[in-house]
Amino acid sequence: MKKRHAIFDLDGTLIDAYNSIYKTIDFICEKLNIKKIEYERIKRAVGGGDKKLIQNLFGEKYFEIAHTLYRENYLKFLKNNVKLLPGAIEILNEFKNKNLKISVATNRSKFCLSQLLNEGNIRDYFDNILCSDDVKNLKPDPEIILKLLEKTNSKKEETFYVGDMDIDYQTGKNAGVDTYIVLTGSCKKNDFAIYKNPLIFDNLLQLKKFLIENMLI
Asked: What is the pLDDT confidence band of residue 1, given thresholds at 50, 70 and 90?
């Protein structure tokens, strides 16, 4: 069946804003006078929303002050620190040209979402955007995708979800939609070894080729 609705995760899928997060965490560590946290650990911790990120990196002891510092300072580190991932514009243009609905399902919060999309200059591509503030349960709970299906009046079989992490794979499967993973973010291919035949691509250009060759769009 031809697909009519594409849902994207943001971080690690369409955009690379890891450096902005790393710089903010570095700033917090300096303020709290604690040991700096390595970039790769921070990158692996991204994806569950900023509260979970701070919880994972700083624990209960520093959570309140660290989360406050994050919310107060992240936007300044976000400025000029967003890059589009390879194939992002190409696949978005392809979907627009084929009149697909394009949505975003992200665990990001509203406090930074508009600036994030503006920094990447991709806001106008999306018909619908839902974030952590719009749902009770964050990914991998399927609530955010199910809400987008309802909002767009889309059938599951004509919808697919694109992400970069294991929680994205779980989210899509929990929602009952075809799910594609690109290895441009936090996870490696072996992180998906526990799943049965996941569809994994090196980047968005490979995914675009797959969708076209299999006449899915």
From this structure: confident
**How big is the chain, counted in residues?**
217
Q: pLDDT (tens digit, 9 = 90+) per residue, 155-164?
A: 999 999 999 9
Please tell me the distance from the alpha carbon of residue 182 to that of residue 167, in angstroms, as a whole number.
13
| Rounded Cα–Cα distance for residues 117 and 102 (Å) | 14
Q: Which residues pair with 130 in a beta bridge?
A: 105
d(C-alpha 115, C-alpha 111), whole Å: 8
| 54/66 Cα distance (integer angstroms) | 7
Would you state the structure tokens that stand for residue 31, as one six-digit string? 């303020």
Which letter, b or e, does each residue of 44-73 get, where b requires 16 or more Cβ atoms within 10 Å of its Cβ? bbbbbbbbebbbebbeeebeeebbebbbee
Contact yes or no for 11/184 (Cβ under 8 A)? no
Which residue has tokens 């000029």? 80
Q: Which of 90, 85, 118, 103 is nearest to 15 (CA)?
A: 85
- Residue corresponding to tokens 């299906």: 149
pTM for this entry = 0.95
Q: Encode pLDDT of 93-102 as tens digits.
A: 999 999 999 9
